[in-house]
Amino acid sequence: MTRSIKKGLNVDEKLLQKIAGKNPLQTPVIKTWKRACQIAPEMVGFTFGVHNGKTHVEVLISEDMVGHRLGEFSPTKKFIKHGGKMQKELEQKKKEAEVAQAKAATTAATDAGNKK
């Protein structure tokens, strides 16, 4: 979705009207479904609720985001970890090791307290 410089930014006019003359700190979240809209310098400091297909994800616009699209900061897919049975077994062993280590630390602390 590249756009030549002579055409300018692809910014939705309605979004610019919503933020025109408003203070970024006092303006509530501005909901939008325009994921393809590019971020303009006028938008810096505002918080947009960008729709991801299910909910509105709050995006606080910073100077580094200028030129990017609003949709880039509102992921549409939720990552569910890889693995399966083998991964579950590894995580279970890791959790058991942490519990055993915590128990050992508490018993060592109580033994040290009892010796005093």
Protein model, in words:
The chain is an alpha+beta fold and 116 residues long. The chain folds into two domains: 5-73, 30s Ribosomal Protein S19, Chain A (2-Layer Sandwich), CATH 3.30.860; 81-111. The chain has two helices and three strands. The chain has helices at 13-19, 85-115, and strands at 30-32, 47-51, 56-60. Strands 1-2-3 form a three-stranded mixed β-sheet, with no helix packed on it. A hairpin with a 4-residue loop joins strand 2 (47-51) and strand 3. It is elongated and about 75 Å long. The mean pLDDT is 86.
Element order, helices and strands? Answer: HEEEH
Overall mean pLDDT = 86
Judged by helices, strands and strand pairing, the structural class is alpha+beta
Distance N to C terminus: 71 Å
Oligomer: single chain
What is the percent of helical residues?
25-40%
Reconstruct the topology from this structure:
Elements: H1 13-19, E1 30-32, E2 47-51, E3 56-60, H2 85-115
Compact overview of the structure:
Helices cover 33% and strands 11% of the residues. The protein has helices at residues 13-19, 85-115; strands spanning 30-32, 47-51, 56-60.
